[in-house]
Design a protein that fits this description.
By secondary structure, the protein is of the alpha+beta class. It contains 5 helices and 5 strands; from the N terminus they run E-E-H-E-H-H-E-E-H-H. The strands form 2 sheets. Strands 3-5-4 form a 3-stranded antiparallel beta sheet. It has a two-stranded antiparallel ribbon with strand order 1-2. A hairpin with a 2-residue loop joins strand 1 and strand 2. Helix 3 packs antiparallel against helix 5. The longest helix has 16 residues. The radius of gyration is 20 Å and the shape is elongated.
């Protein structure tokens, strides 16, 4: 049997497939209500997207940060960047992740954050 929170799927269960489906649908609806989206605004450039400006190392760091914070970064075609996760995870502010995104945003705009005063 595999368990997800308080829902258990048991191959030997005597409940009908329809009852199991309803149970899983309710669990998914409950979990989806926890999902929040934080709009970080337009961080895209005029010629290139922010995602395209990431180095391979930067993409690895981004993936590590997403895993560490259990959030996802969504790069929209219009340059808008979204953070998606549970309210509790986003409430931590994901400072390192936002700093990494800001670093590449500044690089894309042609300015080096290290020299901004």
């Amino acid at each position: 049997a595999a368990a997800v929170d308080d829902v258990t799927l048991d191959a030997d269960s005597t409940s009908s497939p329809a009852a199991a489906l309803v149970k899983w649908q309710k669990q998914v609806e409950k979990d989806l209500k926890k999902i929040q989206v934080e709009n970080l605004g337009d961080m895209g450039g005029r010629k290139r997207s922010l995602l395209a400006s990431f180095t391979e190392d930067g993409l690895e760091k981004l993936a590590e940060q997403e895993n560490e914070h259990s959030v996802a970064v969504v790069f929209q075609e219009n340059g808008i960047i979204l953070l998606v996760g549970t309210k509790a995870k986003l409430a931590k502010k994901c400072v390192q992740l936002k700093t990494l995104l800001s670093h590449y945003h500044w690089r894309l705009s042609g300015r080096d954050v290290a020299f901004e005063g």
